[in-house]
Each structure stands twice: as structure tokens, then as C-alpha cells.
Amino acid sequence: MSLLREALVALTYPLALTLAVLLVALVLQKLRWKRTAGVLALCAFAWSAFWSIPNNAEWLRSSLEDRYVVSPDPASLPNADAIVVLGGGGYTWVDRPGVTLDKLKYSRLAAGVRLYEAGRAPRVILSGGGEGVRTEARNMARGMEKLGVPHAALLIEERSTDTTTNAKYSASIARANDIHRVLLVTSALHMPRASLLFRRNGIQVVEVPVPEPTAGAGWADRWLPSPYALWKSGRALKEYAGLLALCVEGKAA
């Protein structure tokens, strides 16, 4: 079941699905179903071509990102028992000198630090697994401490491997520490699925989405196909697939 799920997740990325359909088309070609094979091949190329256009990628992503308002002022958000920051993104800046909050516009960790400094919650749960001593959550803790959050305020969740287990294990830590309401910090794209999973684990959630960089305003930036736009489309399609799976699970329960 795990391998099947991983395969289905992989197929949400346009290029992976295109290659899979082309393989089917090749088999049909060998079986002399030439017209069907040709139509499938054309559809496969068109699928990736469409999602490689930055404007289309941004349109798809905005349908998820715009569900929650990005607040420019952390002090305007309600108080909670804790801040939960989900892993994701690079942490190479942690070892660079001179890094400040102002330089980390798209960082989830920086968003969590701003909430803490604004007095929105006294504790921070950092969720992200990994192998060995240096898990993602521990890298996140290093970043938080570098930006001024005391170690005593941090709760580490380092067993998770995906969003489902982020929610499961973070909720377990929350219950153990009498935490009921959290400010959930993750990317705006990821927020709809993450929020739903945390709520299903019995946690009251205030969504704090973090924006991601968008395409430029120039014609070429919006309309010339690019591998980066294809990758961004794939991430959004993955989120939609995850939401669909949760919807099906909810109806079956």
C-alpha cells in the first residue's frame, strides 16, 4: 500500500504522468492501436506543456494559496497555546552570519519567530523528521534559537515523515503539554491540507500561511514555459490529490 501511494503521489507531477502515459502509448503502438497511441501521446505532451507555463502554474497555486489571508502583522492574530511550524524549505541560512528576520520573507521559521516575538504563544512545536542526530526539527531549532527564541520554549517533533504524521505526532505532543489551540505555520500552498489534518487530530487551528515567491510581471516571466513552473504546478497538483484523498477517507469513515 505504501509503494502504491508513493507511485500515485509521483504521478501528480506532470512530467511523471506524461512519461507514464507515453509508456502506455508505446505499448499500444506495438499492439497496432496506432490512432489511440497517437492521441495518448499528444495528450501526454500537452499536459506537461500546459503546466510548464508560469501563468498557469500561478493560477493553479493561487486557488490553494488564496484560501487563507496572509497577515502582515503578527500582533493582529489571536493568542494561542502554542505555535506549530511545519518543516519544509532549506536551512542553509542558519550557518550564515548577519541573517535577520527582514531577510527571510518566505521562511516558515521566521514567521514562527515573529509570532513568538509578538507574544502570540509561549511555546513553539517544530515538526520535521529525518535520520540520524540532525533531524529537520533540530535544524529548525537551531534556526529558531539563532533568531532569538529561547531553547526552553521549543518542543521538538522529529518522528514525522509527511504531513499526516506531522499532524499526528504534533497533536500527541500538544495533548501531553495541555495545548489545545495552535497557530499553524506552513506555506500558503500547503495550508489547506495541513489545517484539515490537524483539525482531524483534535487540534484547534488558527492558520498562519507563509507566501512563496511568484512569477515576475513581465511577459516572458508569465508565459515562457520553464521547468521551474512545471515543478511548481506539480506541487499544487500533489496538494489537490492529498485533499481529494482526505475527502474520500472522510466519507468512508
How do you describe this structure in short?
By secondary structure, this protein is an alpha/beta fold. The protein has helices at 2-10, 14-30, 34-51, 54-65, 108-117, 136-146, 163-176, 191-200, 219-223, 227-252; strands spanning 82-86, 124-127, 154-157, 181-187, 204-210. The mean pLDDT is 92.
Write up this protein:
The chain is α/β, with parallel strands linked by helices. It has 2 domains: 2-65 and 222-252, no CATH class; 74-210, HUPs (Rossmann fold). It contains 10 helices and 5 strands. It has helices spanning 2-10, 14-30, 34-51, 54-65, 108-117, 136-146, 163-176, 191-200, 219-223, 227-252; strands at 82-86, 124-127, 154-157, 181-187, 204-210. It has a 5-stranded parallel beta sheet, sandwiched between helices. α2 (14-30) packs antiparallel against α3.
Q: CATH superfamily name of the largest domain?
A: HUPs
The overall number of domains is 2
Mean pLDDT: 92
CATH structural fold name of the largest domain: Rossmann fold
First-residue to last-residue Cα separation: 18 Å
Number of helical stretches of at least 4 residues = 10
Beta-strand fraction estimate: 5-15%
Portion of residues in helices?
Answer: 40-55%
Widest sheet, order of strands:
3-2-1-4-5
Number of strands: 5
Overall outline: elongated
CATH C-level of the largest domain = Alpha Beta
Query: Which sheet architecture does the biggest sheet show?
Result: 5 strands, parallel
